Amino acid sequence: MKTTYAxxxxxxxELKEFIQAHYHEFSNNxxxxxxxxxxxxxxxxxxxxxxxxxLPRAVMIGSNSSGCLFDGMNEQSRLFFxxxxxxxxxxxxxKLSDNDSINDFVKGLTFDRPKAAMVMANKWTGMLxxxxxxxxxxxxxxxxxxxxxxxxxxxxTETMIAEEGIAAVTFSxxxxxxxxxxxxxxxxxxxxxDAKDFSQETDSPIxxxxxxxxxxxxxxxxxxxxxxxxxxxGRTAVYDDTNFVIGFVSQLQGLSxxxxxxxxxxxxxxxxxxxxGKSARWHHEKDVFLYISKRAGAKMRECLEQSPEEASQYxxxxxxxxxxxxxxxxxxxxxxPDIIFTTxxxxxxxxxxxxxxxxxxxxxxDLAGKSWLEFLNPKKGERLKKNVEIAxxxxxxxxxxxxxxxxxxxxxxxHVFPIFVDGECVEILxxxxxxxxxxxxxxxxxxxxxxxxxxxxxxxxxLEQILNxxxxxxxxxxxxxxxxxxxxxxxxxxxxxxxxxxxxxARIQLASRIQSLLPSGSFLGRFSTDTFTVLLGGETxxxxxxSISQRILQTIQEPLLFENQEFYIASSIGISVYPxxxxxxxxxxxxxxxxxxxxxxxxxxNVVFYLNEMNKEMIERVELERSLRKGIENNEFFxxxxxxxxxxxxxxxxxEALLRWEHPEWGIVSPKKFIPIAEETGMIHxxxxxxxxxxxxxxxxxxxxxxxxxxxxxxxxxxxxxxxRFIDNIKQALDESAxxxxxxxxxxxxxxxxxxxxxxxxxxRELMEMGIHISIDDxxxxxxxxxxxxxxxxxxxxxxxxxxxxxxxxxxxxAIVHAILTMGHGLGLRIVAEGIETTEQLHMLTSLGCDxxxxxxxxxxxxxxxxxxxxxxxxxxxxx
Length: 880
Known about the structure:
ten-stranded mixed β-sheet
């Protein structure tokens, strides 16, 4: 047998917690004995269904008897969970109402030749006598224990319930042994009213048949005459037609005519109960009867009828058995791998086993007069003292605590047992298993499961656990608290430029900065690769939250130093607040993420609180994503071309291919809306491949029509550069169109410049070797250092339109544009100014030496057919 738990039933929820803490749905060889005092059949059936769900492989037997199983516990329902190691358990139930064969019932139970059986009935009938007899007939060597739960009660197994019937559980195992003993201390009948002297009764209510059957007629006759005993108040032994008590003989007085009974007790019977191998248990007058086998009854008769000489011989045999029992126990204690020690009731050591000595270096002699308190973690001493006091009352205790091992602490799973002699607790036995390595392994596994390996920060699983705890606490106290999503921009760039270990160091530094700003009681975790999550403690009004958020943004923006280079990280924060923006984990996290996504679209607003309107936007975004996929399938996209000219000669040198989406219901959809979604979902790769092919084919057509030197400029997303097939897509587009590579220009965003990974540099160099021109779009708006320009094979810089819109002689933008032109020309690069809308802007850029210009002043973007017409008009007007 591995373990047994006695569980006092309180409610279904606590029972579920107990089961989940100790067992799992695949637990085998588990026996549940249920004593459900006065439970109705509906409640019993509900419990059975609960076990069938949580412990589908367990075997159960029980009743709703109200009889006492333990002193002082007659009104409490209990469940006993016994987990066997190598024992197979089978249950069956025979309903009297089904008129089935009792012989078939017993044959089925004994088919696998079990070693023992537990039998329970709820009515004493000839059918039960027949059942017990059939057990001994089919399998004489089987050991049987069981009982009657009285008329009007219910018996059940894990699969059936019966108001009249017999339930049984059998135990079998190849290497198992069975030991059954008679219980010495019996639970006596609880009979109301004054005690009676049976010698005054003219018509004794005591039936002879049960005693004759169990003890034999000759022995039973000796017990029946009233003059042989008296009764005492509160200890009357009562019989009725269906139940009887064997244990009453240990309380009867005046049996002087029986051997060894002159003290008023039956010492010979008390010796029987110590002798192993006899089938019996305790009994109750009202509604519990436990069967005693014929072998036990025969031994009882033998002892009641023995002579003084035979009794003396029995005492010698008893002493022999006691000596061997002591040697047996000592062998177990000495060889047990777990620590075992005993103390007196004041906590002083009596005995320690070799396992204790090996671990702590102390033998029994070294510990004489010393208290076990010296080995306790001082912080946990009071806890163990309380549990020892509980053990003194007769209840075994299990707990986990730390014992001092030198200056270190070792964790032990400690079982505390009382040692009783003649009904009195005289010592305390401690059995402890060293759980230190196991607990350390569990902590390591917990660290791996709930904390980020690289940074040591709590991960998403731990965040969910903590957030649910915060929600419960806030719900009880009717409080609120904010959840902050902090997104770190450009972390991937650090990974690619300097290596992932530097990226992890950056996260650790930033986490430390953030933690230093948080109020006491706050929580910081890593939600994803580039996102921290904060549960903010303390004051939660919006002003305070906004102030803390702004300080977090400021500390993140402070430079990071890696390999003697300063690096800057931008960030943004989305905030949801419990309970206003959600009352459970999923909604709070979703809404904080929604708020975070809004920081990308709200100009100069890096901290955003969630609003209900954002949900509408998210729904629209989901619909936009769905339509985008459908639009790709239905060819709803086209390219518009905007000319790029030489401002001095007015000659057209190139055009920029711009993607447009014409939705059948919404009309033209702005690229600002759908391009970010295409990048996030990966659809940008499909669109990018189509753009390259379409643009190359179109430009080649224009060249065949006489515009021989026109080039096309195509925007390339940073996501496309991460695609391993990007180079192949370009080669395929050039091959299918037969376009010379020098007429294909690729425009990269300035953010790509910070990416100095070997893969990106090699890719750009391969493009340059193919003859393709590389341009940097929106130059001047990013965070990259200008020194990075020398690392890339770049041909052209495009000045961002934000510097051109307000360009005039008094504008500070003039100095910036002039500086870009000077620097670009110094590096041998050509410069394009985009967003030209006025003649003044055109003249200023021309005077500054800008190589090429683009904008609505020259022409707005046109679809291919209209752009062809524009080229024709241009040629006629300028003789291209």
